[in-house]
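Sanity check record (used in CI):
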Amino acid sequence: MVYEKEKLKNTLAKMERIQAALLKIPRYYGNDMVEQILDDQRQVQLKNIQLAQNEPYFGRLDFEEKDKPITPLYIGKAGVQDENTNDLIVIDWRAPVSSMFYSFTGSDDLISYQSPDGEITGKIHLKRNIAIRNQVLQRVVDSYVRGDENMGVTDEFLLYRLSDSKDSRLRDIVSTIQQEQDVIIRADYNRLLIIQGVPGSGKTTVALHRLAYLLYQYQNKIKPEKIIIFAPNRMFLDYISEVLPELGVGDIQQTIFEDWALSLLKENIQLKDRKQQLVDWFSPHANHQITNPKGSYTFLQALDKALLEYENTFLPDQGFTAWENKHLSSKEIASWFYQEYRHYPLMKRKERIMARIKRWMETEHKDIRARDPRGALKKQANKQFTAYKKSWPNHSVLDWYRLFTQNTDLLSEEQRLKGKQREVSYEDLAPLVYIHDRWYGMEGDQKYDHVVIDEAQDFSPFQVAVLKNHCPSSSFTILGDILQNIYTFQGIERWDDFSILFEEEKLGFHQLERSYRSTMEIIHFANSVLGSYSGDVKPAKPVFRSGKPVRLMQVKSDKQLDWIKETLQQIETDNISTIAIVTRDEASCSVIFESLRDAGIQSNRISVDQKEYLGGISIVPIYLTKGMEFDSVILLDVDAEQYLDDSLHAKLLYVGCTRALHQLYITHDKSPSPLIKQVLPELYEADIYRG
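Expected output for AAA family ATPase:
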């Protein structure tokens, strides 16, 4: 500890001196290329120092390269270099040498990493985790010391970090990245990565760290403004908003699919109320056998075929006559359409042909201007042109798609678009964008170097196919959990539904099975709730972090508010920061929110259109909790009539249970759900609230 305190003091002093020296150098705004590069480098160094000021580093690795002395390497969020000596004071966590800090577990005598000059091999003598907060050394944990046979605290630092309470934002994990996570983060750029991750496995955080790594490692291939993240909802975007800035990364687009799709479609298209769709779907006795053919690969193929037929019959049979003896044959126009302009999208071809005919008319009229002083022939030509242009098809994207839905056998009567309605469902957006891209093409800012899809089990194959068209490199990070596919009316049940869209040699599949979020008690309980409905997907494995037992409470409806108030008081004495009161639907959510407000308890009600996560006490329907995590979770009204014994309800409860880090409370009024009854009694404590 004494050595590390002195080391920290010296490092902070060096960083302060470097920063002061850099700030004295005036910015360069001239045209000299070399000076521009030097100025850019100084600005990057300043940014790195500012990023590293409060926590310069989090790890130390003593590495002995062959025939060289042991070198202590200090690893942090940002690399800091002494400009006078060129010595690295702190090494960036994304640097090749830093990979050893994450991959080394103590089991191998020799370890290597890939440097720009080739493979470097050597020995690790010390692996040390260091916790620094606001420039103060908090904790030092040695997870490996060469020659010490008693080392057995590999996870001590991880457990120390996991014991922290949550605030209102997701945070970076650079100091605790695990080996299996690091493999994903450092995977090659130009491939599709599918990450099947259990709740709390860090898949979202891993994906965000992967972006930071890719931008560091492939600076000449990937630009931050050409990366796009698709999140499940706007509130989740707010929840993850601080991770990338903490890693020194900015300018990455973050959106949800419906906002992105509607921004591309230039037509006046309205989206149906998403809230009502979810309310209907998640009512206990809804028909959950409904499928979404509009999102399927089969629907895409049918649409593709129809579009091709439309393109092949798009060109009118007749040519164009401007005036007598001035004629463009249909054959000549067809050669423009099918040969000269074949690489242009459909409507761009039409635009170019119309512009070319216009130029031809102007050129031809110049030759006869003397014979047409009053412009009668020109007026005639313009009139002919207007009529000829009208002979070409002129469908809007929505009008053509509406006709397609009305004539395909793949849809039920309820799934077809009727009349002239301009209101569409979420499931219609991918087909509409697909048609728009085929007809109008894509602007440069609509093409991406890398695409991230979070909670991807709720995406359809059609959506992924559309996004693939917008990413020429096919570089994707797709992450989710098949066991959390509660939106089965729009999502998938197996990852193969996506992989068929990509070349096999570009596919990479990773499973994250360890849950770093919840205690052992919560994970074992949640796995038991899921039971046989987990299918072939491996359930979560907890890290060795024990906590309070899961509490199952029978609470009569007329005493529910009293029990909630007492439980909240009890939870708050445990130094808990974030609490979720989880209800079955939004109606129950509103009732609880208003009851607590009347009782003088401040809380935040979360709904479908929520844009910001505020922390504290949240009241949320169970189907909106995905992707979130809370110190303590209270699941209300888990009764037999609310949670049936079927796959969807098992997954709903699994999602709800696995939101909790430290404490999980479950209440029922009469008989608990059969999904709870199947759980072994030793996995929870049952009690009755008597008030």
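The first strand starts at residue 59 and ends at 65. If this sentence no longer matches the regenerated tokens, the check is flagged for review.
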